[in-house]
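Notes, Module 5: Reading structure tokens.

Key idea: the token line is not a picture. It is a compressed description, and you learn to read it the same way you learned to read a sequence, by spotting repeated patterns. We will look at two proteins. The first is printed below with its tokens.
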Amino acid sequence: MSPTIAIVSGVTLLTIVGIESGGAFLLRTLRRSSGFTDLQRSFFRAGHAHAGVLVILGLTVLLLLDAVGVNATLQWSGVGVLASAILLPAGFFLSVLGPHASKPGPLVGLIWAGAAVLALSLVVAAVAIVVAGVAGLA
């Protein structure tokens, strides 16, 4: 594993502590009967779920890219997946801030940006892994 990918992976593992703290916050919010709208509860739940799943997916993509020997430039597509693990949840959380939010605010665009980064990163990573696999057959 390249030193850069090792560092990125280690730092990413530390972010799971933050996701865990977010889970504790989510449990507290869901137990309250007042203070948050249904939209806020739904968006908080979606943000937390996306963060956890995308961090694990990002780490898996990094390991796959490294395992098949993809060059260092294309390995950054795994970092793109990890970037989507920031953008998507940020959009869910930040777009419903404020008291009595009844519709998402302008920061909902972060969800779309995160989805685009995720799709592009996964396509690049998938093609790089397939190409490395085909090259290994020769």
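Here is the second protein, with the sequence above and the tokens below, as before.
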Amino acid sequence: MLKHKWVLLISMLINMGIGLVMPITTIYIHTVLGKPLSVAGTTLLFFSGASMVGNVIGGRLFDRWSHKGPVIVGQTIASLSLLIIALSPTWPLYPIVLVFYGLGIGTAFASFNGLVAILQADEPLMFNYSFLAANVGMAVGSLSAGVLFAISIHLTFLVPGILFGLAVLIDIFKLEDGNAQTVKGPTNNVVSNPIHGAFRSIILIAFAFFVIWIGYSQWNTNLSTYMTSHGASVAEYSALFTLNAVVLVLIQPFGNRILPRIFPRKKYQVIFGTVVFACSFLMIIHQPHYINFVMGMLLLTFGEMVVMPTIPAWLNEFATPGNRGTIQSISSLAGGFGRAVGPLLGSLIIEATSYPAMFMWLCAADIVGAGLLVLAIDRQPNGK
């Protein structure tokens, strides 16, 4: 039986809420509120920046204050923000409150990952199970977003606000708390971690995660224009992400059992997954047919299954009780920064060269990231 079911339910609920909000953000700002796409992009940039600030805050609070306290604070901020937008989804209130929403989920995610990192000692596949629960929630949320948006914009934000509120109640009544260790002096610094080479490895892992998310963000943004210019409909483009969610939910339970046997060390699992990410772009460089996009998405999904839960688990090997939340916030920061700059960077490469050239650059960047990971260490803090 799975342990820590309440933690997995929280992961599912908050990702369901995010899946309801994010797919309609650009559409709502541009189509309903009548703002230029550049304004929508700027709003999302501020949202990502606030989320990254929340990552830092959540990680530090987890280490110095409480294990579940910052999770509750972050989810409460996110819930209240969505309820305010549900009452008055108007301009300029909407983008302002969306920034607070980003701050809330950033705080919640960093501290929640710290909590999962602690539970991993009791359940070795805790990150994998949490990732699976998150994808179930994201799939349900994304599929429901269009339905709720067609009914009412108020309902579109009310439902995820309620979901975050339910997560807060579970936090309060079902999660066990642990008092964070207040570590004074240099012992709370990642640089002084007793594992030789830990700081270098953490930086290399964070850089690889940053590069991966730059590429992943293209599928959520610039690929829509590329696909539709080659005859695909918006519905066919959206279907790729339904495929992504369904395949993740179906294959990850098998991946959880098989991949550790093939790659006993997390280092080589992440390197393999990063190369798979690179190959997803090779599928669509010279053959922009819909079947190639499907095959590219399947490779992307497989790489996601291999990499996304493994990186925080790998980083947790370098953590001590006094910096576990801070180290987990590093992966959130790296991913958030990649998501923030990825769409802009991709569009600049496209304008300067072409879509195929961008795919080649992204493929090469993933290969470089995978190569650099060879220099990282992979062992438990006790030296095993």
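Summary for the second protein:
- Residues 234-262 form the longest helix (29 residues).
- The two ends are 28 Å apart (CA to CA).
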